[in-house]
């Protein structure tokens, strides 16, 4: 009887605490999504004899958002990404033994305080997405070319993974009287907390950007710093030990009023800095793109686009790290092609740390909607190394990607991506035993709820 009374009092106490807290929540939303991929990939291992992989992969998310007051909100999102039927021992996933194919991971978890001190000034604390411009420099912590700590490395198609967030603090401000917004952020990429771990050092990311965007044009300067403080001299997933790498850039867009549907965009980023504590290495790489698009004013929404992207490379005999060091980009496949991105660990200029030959990518694209629910896109990429490698040809190859997206319902989408890469002499020289061009067919079914 006494236990029952104590239990009843405990429940009453919990209810007394919970009811006021629930009453403070003005709006709660729950949602999520599931995307299932079916992939067939042939000869994606450029440096060895060809191999074929066919597999099924699922990314599943569920989220809860709560609006506590008009200026306080919170978001939590969980994700599970796994290949069907694959069971990988935890100890072989990465050097720290973290993660598992069946893990449910924390994808988002942040608190946002809006209109602090003045309207338009916001602070977001916790696991969140970060983006500068179109994501050329900052947009995705986990990308196929640089597999960072915590990512489910056992996925057969890391390029299809949907985790993007950073553990970060972000402050942003949007003016109510001018087309001006600014943001600044600090993100923790790796935290040193136990000396016995193989990765025993801190990696921090800092960034700031300013966007001025009137009606038909915009300009956005930014600066980002990656600080890897490691006295032991251990590289961190592609980033050099003791690294103090800064990237300053500017992005611009313009819509041509005289020609409706015509727009241009461009971005340039320059790197500088030296290892922590000094040293003889100077980072001097650069990257950028320039592109244009014309949308025809007809019901099927056809468009034509062209873009040229370049990641600088290191010239022969140079003492500086002249090759561009990618930081945390998003939508890399949109710049270099689906297959080139999926095998980004092999292609130069995507994952090299200041010492590779760099990459040049010329892209032509066309798309339209033959029906209200079906979208079709065709992209061609010409890929080459940025710095000549002597007797080896500069030609990486030509890639063609064809994409279909069909909106089965408002919340269900069916997709099919087809691609092939006609290998150039640079790729052929990587392996004498590899004589076939890579190609892929990736089907997808996604639902949002």
Major beta sheet, specifics? 18 strands, antiparallel, barrel
**Estimated structural class:** mainly beta
Number of strands: 18
Quick one: CATH class? Answer: Mainly Beta
Low-confidence stretches: 1-23, 89-101, 148-152
Mean pLDDT score:
84
- The SSE order reads HEEEEEEEEEEEEEHHEEEEHE
At the third CATH level, what is the topology name?
A: Porin
The count of helical stretches stands at: 4
The helical percent reads under 10%
Number of folding domains? Answer: 1
Quaternary state reads: single chain
Radius of gyration: 24 Å
Under the CATH scheme, which architecture would be assigned? Answer: Beta Barrel
What does this structure look like?
This protein has 449 residues and is mostly beta strands. The protein has one domain: Porin (Beta Barrel), CATH 2.40.160.100. It contains four helices and 18 strands. The protein has helices at residues 2-23, 333-336, 338-342, 425-428; strands spanning 27-42, 52-69, 72-83, 105-113, 121-128, 166-174, 180-190, 202-212, 217-229, 243-255, 262-272, 286-295, 303-311, 359-368, 374-384, 395-407, 412-423, 439-448. The protein has an 18-stranded antiparallel barrel. Strand 14 (359-368) and strand 15 (374-384) form a beta hairpin. The longest helix is centred in the N-terminal third of the chain and has 22 residues, at 2-23. The two termini are 46 Å apart.
